[in-house]
């Protein structure tokens, strides 16, 4: 499959205003609600990934449902790692993650949709459990991306949620 144009936008602005593309409003979500929303979203991905056309790119500018599912699975894994760093270290700097390079290196389009559905659901459950266990006094713990963007556990939870909501919007508009 042809590689898509890499996404080079800095999406941190979604923490302060609604996303005009998917409608996500960060002010409408409390960090403590994120875990349940992640679990609900994961269940929807399982059914999407079992659709007979999950492997087909229906638009030239979008991944297939399978490729988005692989990305969402990996997003859950990356955010699990980042939140764990924030909860266990003082002001950790997150390792870089090039999502586009990962999609190519892991050949998202050739993965098995049923396996991805299981892996996505499991990864979502793990990170949701982590958010559920964040102590009240830990939501303000910080972490930094290599570009200097600062997150707290609370803001990274909202940022994470936007990512999965946005991609659910991407596949629903295909």
From TrEMBL:
Keywords assigned by UniProt, alphabetized: Isomerase, Pyruvate
InterPro entries, per the entry: DinB-like, DinB/YfiT-like
Highest taxon listed in the record's lineage: Bacteria
GO MF entries: isomerase activity
Name of one Pfam family that matches: DinB_2
Domain DinB-like: 49-167
Protein name: Mycothiol maleylpyruvate isomerase N-terminal domain protein
């Amino acid at each position: 499959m042809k590689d898509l144009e890499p996404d080079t936008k800095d999406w941190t602005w979604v923490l302060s205003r609604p996303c005009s593309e998917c409608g996500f409003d960060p002010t409408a979500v409390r960090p403590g609600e994120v875990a349940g929303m992640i679990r609900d979203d994961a269940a929807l991905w399982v059914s999407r990934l079992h659709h007979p056309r999950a492997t087909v790119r229906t638009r030239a500018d979008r991944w297939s449902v399978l490729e988005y599912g692989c990305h969402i699975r990996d997003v859950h894994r990356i955010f699990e790692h980042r939140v764990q760093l924030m909860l266990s270290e003082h002001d950790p700097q997150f390792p870089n993650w090039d999502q586009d390079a990962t999609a190519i290196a892991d050949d998202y389009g050739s993965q098995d949709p049923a396996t991805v559905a299981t892996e996505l659901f499991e990864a979502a459950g793990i990170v949701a459990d982590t958010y559920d266990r964040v102590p009240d006094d830990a939501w303000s713990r910080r972490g930094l991306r290599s570009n200097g963007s600062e997150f707290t556990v609370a803001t990274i939870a909202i940022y994470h949620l936007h990512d999965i909501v946005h991609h659910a919007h991407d596949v629903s508009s295909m």
